[in-house]
């Protein structure tokens, strides 16, 4: 493996610092304590060398969409940087539940009873269960992952019964082309109602708005790693 050229690594470090600075600004504007919002660096489609460059710059939390891709990158990353934590943030097929349960530190896309059952089974046999967030489809988009808003209360209760305090938060991706603030506020309210401390919301284009609406974790890809290379 060839490390990134110095200029490419420096660009990642610089963009990380910039994102962190504007997160801090939004946090202060929202009268929230500095450090109350975590930055998840979304490295999907970017090579492992870019992840390692971000680690060099001090980043420790990473998000990947696909279990398969994460499995090719993160064992190596964690060997070098044992404090790294991997979040799986993409829609998860039930037949990938076992691999996800084995690999992820946090799974953010728990969104249906069949997946909950598959994870329960996998964790029984693996003796390991990631921290879980329930993904909520706040925009009721048919093509998008996430539990429907009308079913969210029941599903969250069911997940807490199955997984106890492994269930720590909620995640949402607002519909494109709409003001995301309403969706962010809705997710914060739902998390508060269920006494869940984590609200994973906000991406490169809207993390400031998400922080002002109560996000505790933003998932930022493009603003850190640059445009994604074409999907493999
Ligand atoms: C890709 C992705 C992100 C990051 O998106 P950017 O716009 O590149 O910051 C965040 N969350 C999820 C679920 C994603 O799939």
UniProtKB/TrEMBL annotation:
- Entry keywords, A to Z: Pyridoxal phosphate
Q: Required co-factor?
A: pyridoxal 5'-phosphate
Alphabetized InterPro entries for the sequence = Ala_racemase_N, PLP-binding_barrel, PyrdxlP_homeostasis
List GO molecular-function terms, semicolon-separated.
Answer: pyridoxal phosphate binding
Q: Which residues form the signal peptide?
A: none
Q: Looking at the keywords, is Ribonucleoprotein present?
A: no
What name does this protein carry? Pyridoxal phosphate homeostasis protein
Organism annotation: Formicincola oecophyllae
């Amino acid at each position: 493996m060839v490390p990134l050229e110095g200029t490419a690594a420096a660009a990642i470090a610089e963009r990380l610092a910039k994102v962190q600075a504007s997160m801090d600004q939004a946090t202060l504007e929202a009268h929230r304590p500095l450090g109350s919002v975590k930055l998840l660096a979304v490295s999907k489609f970017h090579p492992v060398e870019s992840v390692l460059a971000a680690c060099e710059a001090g980043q420790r939390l990473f998000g990947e969409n696909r279990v398969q891709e994460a499995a090719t990158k993160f064992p190596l990353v964690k060997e070098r940087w044992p404090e790294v934590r991997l979040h799986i943030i993409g829609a998860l097929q039930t037949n990938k539940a076992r691999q996800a349960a084995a690999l992820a530190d946090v799974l953010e896309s728990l969104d249906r009873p069949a997946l909950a059952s598959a994870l329960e089974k996998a964790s029984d046999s693996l003796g390991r269960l990631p921290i879980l967030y329930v993904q909520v489809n706040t925009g009721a988009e048919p093509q998008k992952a996430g539990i429907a808003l009308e079913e969210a209360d029941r599903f969250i209760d069911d997940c807490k019964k199955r997984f106890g305090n492994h269930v720590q938060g909620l995640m949402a991706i607002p519909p494109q082309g709409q003001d995301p603030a309403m969706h962010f506020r809705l997710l914060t309210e739902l998390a508060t109602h269920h006494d869940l401390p984590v609200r994973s919301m906000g991406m490169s284009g809207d993390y400031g708005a998400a922080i002002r609406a109560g996000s505790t974790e933003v998932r930022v890809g493009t603003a850190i790693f640059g445009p994604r290379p074409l999907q493999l």
